């Protein structure tokens, strides 16, 4: 049996927060609670949180969770995988009816927080994947972040808001060309180590 997607393609992200502080429970649970997740399907367990819905709401929520944790000043790291157009992903359709207004934009746009991030795009099911990826890495030069090559990934440095916006733009452009796309990332703020 083939599971068909609805008219809009469901996006999702599975991510975890790691907080280098004795207070990690409050920071993880507090960041999740402070974030408005009303426009996404959501599941949190002992390992990760998964959110699914329209692509703009998925990015809005993941960025907000990270900013609320990082603004504590603690060394906070997040790793995750975004996916869109997964052929088996259909049961979250109820969350696709929402409008495009981002529930967390007003509360997060003013949070200034620098971070370093490495991300990798994986356009599925195309033999031209390297062309698709290079086009995006090139574009991210114009998005207010410093872009540098890194093994198996691309590094983005700058404001957290700009980093997530750059990743969202790259991800959305790739999924327009390729039906199923995934993207992995690791972002770190307030690290005591200086950048190499
Ligand atoms: C985004 C995110 N979701 C879930 C976990 C798993 N987790 C580890 S400690 C903790 C709080 C106490 O139970 C939770 C929920 C995580 N790390 N980050």
From TrEMBL:
<dbReference type="Pfam" id="PF07615">
    <property type="entry name" value="Ykof"/>
</dbReference>
<feature type="domain" description="Thiamin/hydroxymethyl pyrimidine-binding YkoF putative">
    <location>
        <begin position="115"/>
        <end position="193"/>
    </location>
</feature>
<dbReference type="InterPro" id="IPR011522">
    <property type="entry name" value="Thiamin/HMP-bd_put_YkoF"/>
</dbReference>
<protein>
    <submittedName>
        <fullName>YkoF family thiamine/hydroxymethylpyrimidine-binding protein</fullName>
    </submittedName>
</protein>
<dbReference type="InterPro" id="IPR029756">
    <property type="entry name" value="MTH1187/YkoF-like"/>
</dbReference>
<dbReference type="InterPro" id="IPR015835">
    <property type="entry name" value="HMP/thiamine-bd"/>
</dbReference>
<feature type="domain" description="Thiamin/hydroxymethyl pyrimidine-binding YkoF putative">
    <location>
        <begin position="10"/>
        <end position="89"/>
    </location>
</feature>
């Amino acid at each position: 049996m083939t599971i068909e997607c609805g008219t809009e393609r469901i996006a999702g992200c599975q991510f975890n927060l790691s907080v280098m502080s004795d207070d990690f429970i409050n920071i993880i649970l507090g960041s999740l609670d402070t974030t408005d997740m009303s426009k996404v399907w959501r599941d949190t367990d002992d390992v990760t949180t998964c959110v699914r819905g329209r692509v703009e709401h998925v990015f809005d929520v993941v960025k907000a969770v990270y900013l609320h944790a990082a603004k504590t000043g603690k060394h906070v790291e997040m790793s995750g995988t975004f996916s869109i157009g997964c052929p088996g992903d259909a049961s979250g359709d109820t969350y696709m009816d929402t409008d495009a207004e981002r529930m967390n934009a007003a509360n997060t746009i003013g949070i200034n927080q620098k971070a370093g991030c490495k991300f990798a795009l994986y356009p599925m099911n195309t033999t031209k994947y390297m062309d698709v990826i290079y086009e995006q890495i090139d574009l991210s030069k114009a998005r207010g972040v410093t872009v540098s090559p890194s093994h198996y990934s691309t590094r983005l440095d700058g404001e957290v808001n700009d980093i997530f916006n750059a990743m969202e733009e790259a991800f959305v452009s790739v999924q327009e060309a390729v039906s199923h796309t995934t993207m992995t990332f690791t972002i770190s703020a307030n690290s005591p180590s200086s950048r190499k």
